Amino acid sequence: MKIGFGYDVHRLVEGRRLILCGAEIPYELGLLGHSDADVAVHALMDAILGALALGDIGKLFPDSDEKYKDANSMELLGQVIEEMHKNGFTLGNLDMTIVAEKPKLAPYIPQMRENLARAFGCDTSKISVKATTEEGLGLAGSGIGAYAVVMLEENP
Ligand code: MG
């Protein structure tokens, strides 16, 4: 088994869509980034790459590369999952916490879990997505952060 951890944060700005784990969330602000800025999927990809000691998403998908402009992070996740399979591992389980003062994310969590389960081709029982605020403290007032841990199991 291998364990990996990932963290990411993106700034909230006007004129951008808010996408978390592939779910579009209606809100007046969205996350700024070179790709679609799906901060939750970015943390998750870093956790998988971390478990495999393959660096991070900045190495795999450099934001200096125009190819990744407005990239769909769920598609990038698909590539990372493929890399995981190539290295002989499958997902044991994943656990994620999204940190956001606003908007309320609870209604969208089932959709997020389903999106991730589809990407991994696994049951939603292996996929945990949680959301919390920072009680007005920290940096999450002006952005959204995400922490992810994964456990990967080596194929027999
Ligand atoms: Mg990012």
Structure description:
- This protein is of the alpha+beta class and 156 residues long.
- The chain is built from 4 helices and 7 strands; from the N terminus they run ββββαααβαββ.
- It has a 5-stranded mixed β-sheet.
- Helix 1 (39-51) runs parallel beside helix 3 (73-86).
- Bound molecules: magnesium ion.
* Widest beta sheet: strand line-up: 4-1-7-5-6
> Helices and strands: which structural class?
alpha+beta
Largest sheet: 5 strands, mixed
Count of DSSP helices? 4
Binned strand content: 25-35%
Number of strands: 7
Element pattern in H and E: EEEEHHHEHEE
Oligomer: single chain
User: What ligands can be seen in this structure?
Assistant: magnesium ion
**What is the average per-residue confidence, as pLDDT, rounded to a whole number?**
95
Task: Specify the overall morphology.
Answer: globular
Helices and strands in order:
Elements: E1 2-14, E2 19-20, E3 23-24, E4 29-31, H1 39-51, H2 57-60, H3 73-86, E5 89-99, H4 109-120, E6 127-132, E7 143-154
Parallel strand pairs: 5-6
Antiparallel strand pairs: 1-4, 1-7, 2-3, 5-7
Bound molecules: magnesium ion (MG).
Q: Can you give keywords for this protein?
A:
156 residues, 5-stranded mixed sheet, 28% helix
Quick description:
The protein is α+β, with helices and mostly antiparallel strands and 156 residues long. The chain has helices at 39-51, 57-60, 73-86, 109-120, and strands at 2-14, 19-20, 23-24, 29-31, 89-99, 127-132, 143-154. The longest helix is centred in the middle third of the chain and has 14 residues, at 73-86.
